[in-house]
Amino acid sequence: MPVYEFRCLKCKTEFERLCRLSEPIPACPQCGGEVEKCLSRFGLQSGGKTVTSTGSGSCASCHGGNCSTCGS
C-alpha cells in the first residue's frame, strides 16, 4: 500500500496515511476537517548523489502550494 500525504483545508495540518487508492480520503486527525491529497516529496539516489523532487505541494502550476490545482 502506498503512503499518501494530506493537508487539512481548515487548520492546515499536514499528515501521512498508509492507504489503498480505493479507500476514501480521511478526515483531518487534528480537527476532523476536510483534507486534500498533496504531491509527495521523494528522493532518488543515482551515482552517489541524492536528488529530491520539488517540495510537497509545489509544482509549476501551483500558486502558494495549493495541491488541488495539480489535480492530485
Total of helices: 0
Strand numbers in spatial order across the main sheet: 2-1-3
Can you give the helix content as a percent range? under 10%
* DSSP summary, beta strand count: 5
What is the CA-CA span between the terminal residues?
Answer: 17 Å
Question: What sort of overall outline do the alpha carbons produce when their principal axes are compared?
Answer: globular
Strand pairing plus helix content: what structural class?
A: mainly beta
Radius of gyration: 14 Å
How many domains? The number is 1
Largest sheet: 3 strands, antiparallel
Low-confidence stretches: 54-64
Strand content: 25-35%
N-to-C series of helices and strands = EEEEE
Mean pLDDT: 73
Blueprint (SSEs and pairs):
Layout: E1 3-8, E2 14-18, E3 35-38, E4 43-46, E5 49-52
Antiparallel strand pairs: 1-2, 1-3, 4-5
Structural key phrases:
3-stranded antiparallel β-sheet; 72 residues
Summarize it.
The protein is mainly beta and 72 residues long. Helices cover 0% and strands 32% of the residues.
Describe this structure in words.
The chain has one domain. The relative contact order is 0.22. The strands form 2 sheets. Strands 2-1-3 form a 3-stranded antiparallel sheet, with no helix packed on it. It has a two-stranded antiparallel sheet with strand order 4-5. A hairpin with a 5-residue loop joins strand 1 and strand 2. The protein has 72 residues and is an all-beta fold. The protein is built from no helices and 5 strands.
